[in-house]
Amino acid sequence: MWSFSNIANSIHEWLSNNFNPTWTIIIEMVIAGVAVISLFALLGLVLVIMERKVSAWMQIRLGPNRVGPKGMFQSLADTLKLLVKEGLTPGGADKFLFNLAPFIAMIVAMLLMAPIAFAKDFQLWDLNIGVLFVSAVSSIMVISILMAGWASNNKYSLMGAMRSGAQIVSYELSAGLSILAVVVMTGSLQVSEIIESQRNGWWIFKGHLPMLIAFVTFIIAVTAETNRAPFDLAEAESELTAGFHTEYSGMKFALFFLAEYVNVFIVCAIGATLFLGGWMPFHIGKWEGFNHVMDYIPSSIWFFGKTFFLIFLIMWFRWTFPRLRIDQLLNLEWKYLLPISMINLLIVTAMAILGWHF
Amino acid sequence: MEGFGEVLKMYRKTEIINDSKAPPAEGFGEADMIINVGPQHPATHGVLHLVITLNGETIKNVEPHLGYIHRSIEKMCESLSYRQFIYVTSRMDYLSAHINNHACALCVEQGLQVEIPPRAQVIRVLMDELTRIASHELWLGAMAMDLGAFTPFFHAFRERESINDIMEETCGARLTMNYMVPGGVMHDLHPSFQQRVKDFMQLYKSKVHEYDEMLTGNIIFQNRMKNVGVLSAEDAISYGCTGPTARGSGVSCDVRKLYPYEIYNTLEFDEVLETGGDSFSRYMVRVREMQQSIRIIEQLIDNIPEGDFQTKTKAVLKLPKGEFYSRVETARGELGVYIVSEGATTPYRIKFRSPGFSNLSVLNHIAKGSKLGDLVAMMGTLDLVIPDIDR
Amino acid sequence: MFIKKYIQEIWGAVKSLLKGMRRTGYYFTHHKEIITQQYPDNRETLNLPERFKGEVVMPHDENNEHRCTGCQACELACPNGTIKVIFKNELNAEGKKKKAIDKLVYHLELCTMCNLCIEACPSDAIKMAQTFEHSVFDRNELTKILNNPGSKIMDGVE
Amino acid sequence: MTNEELKIKLAEILPTATIEEAAEIGPGWITVNVEPIEWLAFAQQLRKEEALHFNFLFCLTCIDWKTHLTMVYHLRSTIFHHNIVVKAKLDRDKPAIETVSHIWRTAEFHEREVYEMFGVDFLNHPDLRLLILPDGWEGKNPMRKDFEDPVNMIRL
User: CB atoms < 10 A from the CB of A292, how many?
Assistant: First the structure.
């Protein structure tokens, strides 16, 4: 079976044979870095065109269809446009913070790539606290938004940043609690072990209703955490023009834009890993033939398929629902999601102890 | 939100941008700030400029600054003849341009004492109601977009476009039709008019439940609209609100019912009244009003009398000395046209009592104490069309 | 009791949201419902109704003759001063001097397509064309002369 | 209430006013001419009197007659649905009249508009500032007859 691990191993062997260990590690890091950056760019391009097409079809429009076949290269053209645009820094802005903010957003998004298993045995860094790492690092995202809002010297930006702060801090809780539900079931924080525990079935199926509730809570919470509609109060176009990135233009704006999409990808990848079995193929109990066919589909396709399904779900939300108000947003978290996910976690814990799952 | 206030206080010390010469609103506190919504802002749908005093997210005062699209149509009309000035009024409330023209034509006819042929009356009413539906469709989409739901905007445009196609075929233009002339209408109906209106009604009926699914029944939408911007009936009257804004508060003010013009007294339709007075009531009034308009069209579309579509009037119109006032129900409320004539070929003074101007004045009253996000819902349900306000 | 209400509330909310998602999902999968058009591509098939008010034109017949008598009714009817009639003196068949139009200047940039000039014209000399792509690089190009060079008034039009 | 009764009632309230019936304005609308000084008291009575109950000021404007200005108030009752027109003659050089914005709140905006367009001073108006004209507008009031716009598109 064709697998990424073979490629990675052969590269590693070739490097070890030709260079001393220090150089090997440096070169491998450079390769990984380049791979992540190119994945980044690719994801940006793919997700932007996907969002535009999804929104267009839901809005009974044709969507972009001029650049390339069926408009597939539209986002390349957009990128070109943004690249040649002037990156304006407003006069009263705090220049250092203003210019730093989009890069922090990018760095956070890149860091989050580390523990994600893209395919079988294809992972940058399988650290033993992978899930914890993800939820910890993703909180840094709010810093960049706050920074951008503050440094812009614009009241709209500031309000957007403040909203985003309140929002991310509160939704982090229920996202964390629903992640914990999986961790409790698995007994490990390591991403590879979580995936391995789903060899005989994905958690969303194995865990009965509580896991389904955890999954739904997770999706809602991460939608809020990535500032996507209906929780896009940080940008809230009709209220705050563009919220925290009102003053950004050109490539700096593009970085925020890209970071948003990459964040969406990452949270969906986490969701797919935790609840939908990561790269694990879909198996049904004792149907050996069916399971065998499923195994033939490469693991990377399984992973990306699940992730993109979740991304589509989040886009579906965005293009269907109106935006919440700030107090309703916090009500939803503190009155509904948090109590539900807490009780849910208790039930999951009881289930895990009593072994009430497949 | 204690910390929020603190941060804002710090921020406020750095710079206050306030282009208003207004004295700070009463009780302008340390932690308050002033933001300018507009003249370029996605939610104002035009060049409305609101100076908002905010405490955190809570609105303390809203002060509209008008005039960004003031063309002084009233002054312009003083130099235009009675045939010419009608087209200018299309540019006031451009979403119900047809009804604006209707008001002017009525006023001139009142002065000339001409009888309108029955066919022309029916055509006018049909066009009015189509315009009303088109206007409400656009409002529905734009308001949903203000609240963050982008998709209904395009769905609402689908229906609106089919009305625009009908208009284009019969009147020759999609938005500013200038179809009314003193004495009737400019052209006869297009031969395929009836069929296309029937097609449109079929389309409308097959799609109308979608808005209930996507907006009316949606829990987020309801939460955003209910108990937001509550306007009591007394305030609605005192502030001079008309149209769906006032009817949402239970004030009966439909000109078509109270002071019927053309053939409205022979038609069967209900004046839509809601008693809530909040944004959701105003929303429901407009949604239900569209159905009443469909009902009116259904009654008329198969019963268009034969005959002239225009009474022959003189080439140069002269109104007798005196004052004339006519009012119609536009999609936004009561539009009054007040002509003072000196017996010349041009009006001596024209006053347009535009519904938007009075409806806007209530904004500060209902917005006080609500959140910034609510302001958008309120502006949406007041259905402000800025050229109508500025004139 | 409280718990029951709480759950009912959540269930109702989720149901209403799912209804909306079903609607957008329907449109996502039904591409036949798409209403937008590919405008510059469908120029050939684009059908504008004959009453569409695009710009004022003066039809000429095959002998380069128009129907305009130069009565200035359109000029008077226009609310914006869009139309300007410029006269010249012309000798007719009997050698008498006769007033005729030299140029009918039409300012497209001022025109609001209100159709009042067409209504006012007693000899049906001008009409509305269905063109609508009026954008030009130079504003002066919008000032048009409606009668063809060397055109004459048709016989029998007074 | 019929027009006759209305006329009698109005004459009771304000004997000094001249009341005329102008058929062409609307179906039997009554025009009441009042002195500017009497206007405020008259307005209060129009609003308060049970039988009249003019609670809806639907149009407020001004006409420049070159020799004088006329304030025109269109009132109606949302209960009885009767309409009247109240007119008050103002001096052209120093026009001033009492505000009615505390009786009908809609007058606040309409009076601001008349203030900037005609230069009518509304006494005791809570917030008499420019509404439509840009801040710092100097020069004549645009809607007066002797105002010449320096830029006139049509006569270009």
Answer: 11
